[in-house]
Design goal:
Blueprint (H helix, E strand, L loop, with lengths): L2 H15 L2 H10 L5 E6 L15 E8 L2 H12 L5 E5 L14 E3 L10 H5 L9 E3 L4 E3 L4
Parallel strand pairs: 1-2, 1-4, 2-3
Antiparallel strand pairs: 4-5, 5-6
């Protein structure tokens, strides 16, 4: 990773994706997560405050950026659910098949086109979240 990717980009993404307008969109999507959640592109933890303890048992946050995770720590500490960081890319998620109830993907595919490869095996995916519990999708799928 370059200096820009390590030291500047995580702060830019945190600022841009932490705006009030984006937070309102997160409030519409993230509370729908259920069970064991995979958050692809957890980044700086901006979704953490939106998970509901009565619905989510744990969140596994996948992101290749340790620098972003460092910015997430304070947000994760105040989350209502346990959140574990997994340093990996979308193509290399180290989880067993059928071990996740809900996948949350918010504002991740916008800045990392390679992520689409990891979530689109066997079909297209542009969903903000997907739940294996009832197979629901929200905020668009294609």
């Amino acid at each position: 990773m370059s200096f820009y990717e390590k030291r500047i980009l995580p702060h830019v993404i945190n600022c841009a994706c932490g705006s009030p307008a984006v937070a309102r969109q997160r409030e519409k999507v993230v509370p729908s997560a259920r069970g064991r959640v995979l958050e692809l592109g957890i980044g700086t933890g901006l979704n953490a405050k939106h998970y509901r303890a009565e619905a989510v048992t744990e969140v596994i946050g996948v992101d290749p950026s340790r620098e972003s995770w460092a910015l997430a720590r304070a947000k994760i500490a105040h989350a209502a659910v346990p959140i574990e960081y997994c340093e990996a890319s979308a193509e290399d998620i180290p989880l067993e098949s059928d071990s996740i109830d809900t996948a949350v993907i918010t504002y991740t595919l916008l800045h990392n086109s390679r992520s689409a490869q990891g979530v689109s095996r066997g079909g297209a995916c542009a969903a903000a979240w997907w739940s294996g519990v009832g197979g629901r999708t929200c905020a668009g799928a294609g």
